[in-house]
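Q: what does this look like with adenosine-5'-triphosphate bound?
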Amino acid sequence: MEIIAIANQKGGVGKTTTAINLSAVLAVGGRRVLLVDMDPQANATSGMGVNPELLDRTIYEVLIKGENPSGMVVPTEVENLEVLPSSKDLAGAEVELVNEYSRELRLKRALDKLRDRYDFVIVDCPPSLGLLTVNALAAAHSVLVPLQCEYFALEGLARLMHTINRIREFLNPELSVRGILLTMYDVRNNLSKEVEAEVRRHFGNLVFQTVIPRNVKLSEAPSYGKPIILYDMNCKGASSYIHFVQEFTGVIREE
Amino acid sequence: MEIIAIANQKGGVGKTTTAINLSAVLAVGGRRVLLVDMDPQANATSGMGVNPELLDRTIYEVLIKGENPSGMVVPTEVENLEVLPSSKDLAGAEVELVNEYSRELRLKRALDKLRDRYDFVIVDCPPSLGLLTVNALAAAHSVLVPLQCEYFALEGLARLMHTINRIREFLNPELSVRGILLTMYDVRNNLSKEVEAEVRRHFGNLVFQTVIPRNVKLSEAPSYGKPIILYDMNCKGASSYIHFVQEFTGVIREE
Ligand SMILES: Nc1ncnc2c1ncn2[C@@H]1O[C@H](COP(=O)(O)OP(=O)(O)OP(=O)(O)O)[C@@H](O)[C@H]1O
Ligand SMILES: Nc1ncnc2c1ncn2[C@@H]1O[C@H](COP(=O)(O)OP(=O)(O)OP(=O)(O)O)[C@@H](O)[C@H]1O
Ligand SMILES: [Mg+2]
Ligand SMILES: [Mg+2]
């Protein structure tokens, strides 16, 4: 069971969109996937068609009360893909966990209870480096970093890498960077090209060859509660995430 | 001295871009403006050309140690516009303040020390509803909500309004909603039009008539440390923020 955190403290860079679509493509490819929503906004939950308001137990009970997650997992429209949903109560978790024992390892202990039920666990993180993201990084085998091709997003990258190193040192020696995925790439503007060149220069092979273009279908799909491959299989958004997952799973090794 | 918080827990909706450009247009219009950066990402600080790494005292010392902010204010390239800079240390403030006295009113007490030095104080918030944003809402006379014309952004709006109501009830009876500003509007796609129609239907006159279009110059300007009116005065990004400030200050009342 491989656990992958989707993290970047910069807001709006495509974390949830990547978490949903990576999960869905892996699932249609026959892998058993759990999508864990660690963001109180619950976008990964609603983006997969699950209404967080209708649920009485969510990841909040798992982290704060130590309840077993297997009872809270919800099926989705995609076969082989289940969601461990979030709720807005999670916003208080940061403060509620501060004085609790092993506050950083709550998610890791919970996912240990699901061992071998899934091939992949994909964890969507909120836009911060607080306790919820730390829990995700402490539980994960690797972290995938979506990076919007813009200046502010690039600025925050060094700080994210520094946090990942500290987590590896103090909480999770196994944690590696699975890669940096360039998102919302706009071929028409120079800024995307400049940011791509800068990131590839600094991070080399850590940057996936596949780039996700800006594509309005990707932002329409969540309002129907569907991943892109169910909403519009023929758009560039779908093909770029399919291509990405092939590179991600090592099917194609682009050099 | 009017204090305005720029808040929305959804990430990447244009909070910092609005904070910087609202501040700059007000300043060139002759108002004395302080831009307060309450986000550990320090994007408003670097977006105005100030390097947070070179500063030894920032808003962190103001909030945690209660130091007087007037010694930390930094001038910018724009006359009449100063910045109270952030730093990455601020990321720890949430946890550090949890058990402190009057943890929600630290910013309010600090800004009281600057009374009548400025006409406007614009506070940029991080993408969360945690203690840093609560401090900004507790100190503010009103809150301006940038809203990206996309589904996930719309979904979070009800929760933000709920939080604003609770702050008004328990911490700051004066807090009002100054308005909702639609950002990154793309005339070519239906999603923007649909979201606009939905928001105007629900929130009526709370939604500014001026809409900020998606404009690549707005995302290029921060890499030069300049607000849009110094980077490219003739682009649609500049004219839309100038138009917005006219509506914001009541110069034009569009109906
Ligand atoms: N490649 C893309 N092309 C066009 N729109 C996109 C693309 N990827 C994501 N979006 C849209 O951009 C917005 C931001 O993406 P998303 O919500 O996935 O980012 P995030 O990093 O999860 O945000 P947050 O920091 O708030 O959690 C959403 O409205 C989403 O639908
Ligand atoms: N109208 C616009 N047109 C094009 N790009 C924009 C526009 N407004 C903002 N941007 C760009 O979009 C990205 C997100 O904007 P910004 O950083 O201001 O949002 P934010 O809400 O402050 O994000 P965070 O939640 O991380 O604080 C930035 O790279 C910015 O340069
Ligand atoms: Mg998200
Ligand atoms: Mg910002």
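The mean pLDDT of chain B is 95. The longest helix of chain B spans residues 15-28.
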